Amino acid sequence: MQKLSVLYDNFTDFLSKHKVPSIIVLYAVLIALPQLGIGQYLTRVLCLIGVYSILGLSLNMIAGYMGQTSMGHAALYCLGGYFSALPGVWFGLPFWITLIFGIIGGALGGLILGISTMRLSGSYMAVITLAFGEVVKMIVINWQDVTNGPLGVRNIPRPNFFGIELTTANGGFFYLVLVLVTIAVLVSVCVVNSKFGRAVRAIKEDELAAKLMGVNTAAYRIKTIMISGAMAGMAGAFYASMNRYIDANTFSFDVSMTILSIVIFGGMGSIPGMIIGSTLLTGFPEAFRALADYRYVIYGLILILMMRFRPQGLLGGLSKKPYKLPKGVSLKAAAADNAEAGKQVK
């Protein structure tokens, strides 16, 4: 186990040192995949991996950066799907417009959830998010005049790009989800490396200390959940268009648990971890279809083993790199300033 841990750390260090070439090679391989004749079925599996990558990145905003547990994340995914599908079916709007509706729907769900939980944390937060997911599901089932109830929404329009309809057969959906995953990654990177991201991570480390430092924790919590909801809504809009049919069971509690498993398995707070986690946990049932009925049992065993041998997840945990000081600041200068400050106090 010790040797495996060393090999794993060496591999991750190599990737971090050669980040740009690794990303270029990865995108080159992904762009070439549909041209290699991989088939419609495998293309669809890759699209699902992309969808769950976006969902993992969206939940990572709440669980990884803000440190709160959400057990009803599928509700935001559901709102994005329905807000996108219904205008497309009713009014024949193109996907590129309904995609915006889906993002807005997820963000509105995040706003409601954020306001409901802005004073809660821990197990209380988990219970409220679980209840929120069930409430959304019941509304979708019972509001038949709008959502068509248990029958779901059918014949959802597909994207059309300069007269070409995007499908899994021509690889259009794969390239579209690749673009959407890239957008989700860029949003995550921008949030993490901004003042907003530092405030959110401060809430995770010590909410009381963050308040004492002047951080409006309630506002930051609401905004974070709204951003997470917008990303989940984007995934819902894409899935609705790709599947062309959605109902309440499409966004069940099992989906929420799968998303949470991806975040824990990949490593909370790790952007690459969400991609790897979704690849492994989404691709596993397809690679071993004989065991697909037992996938949640296997997910549970995987999580137990992860908690025992690597609780921070595959790519989670603190970085071993030294802290990068701002420009113009050196360790010697900082030590001299501290020494001078100590003399003045005396």
Using brief descriptors, characterize the structure shown.
mainly alpha; 2 domains
Give the CATH architecture of the largest domain. Orthogonal Bundle
End-to-end Cα distance: 52 Å
The radius of gyration computed from the alpha-carbon positions, rounded to a whole number of angstroms, is: 22 Å
Widest sheet: strand ordering: 1-4
Strand content: under 5%
Mean pLDDT: 84
Treating each run of at least 4 consecutive H or I residues as one helix, how many helices? 15
Shape: globular
CATH topology (fold) name of the largest domain: ABC transporter involved in vitamin B12 uptake, BtuC
- Largest sheet composition: 2 strands, antiparallel
**Helix coverage percent of residues?**
over 70%
Low-pLDDT stretches are: none
Tell me how many strands there are.
Answer: 4
- Total separate domains: 2
CATH hierarchy, class of the largest domain: Mainly Alpha
Topology as a string of helices (H) and strands (E): HHHHHHHEEEHHHHEHHHH
Assign the structural class, choosing from mainly alpha, mainly beta, alpha/beta, alpha+beta, or little secondary structure.
mainly alpha
Task: Give a structural overview.
- The chain has 346 residues and is mainly α.
- It has 2 domains: 36 residues; 306 residues, ABC transporter involved in vitamin B12 uptake, BtuC (Orthogonal Bundle), CATH 1.10.3470.
- Helices cover 72% and strands 2% of the residues.
- The protein has 15 helices and 4 strands.
- The strands form 2 sheets. It has a two-stranded antiparallel ribbon.
- The N and C termini lie far apart (52 Å).
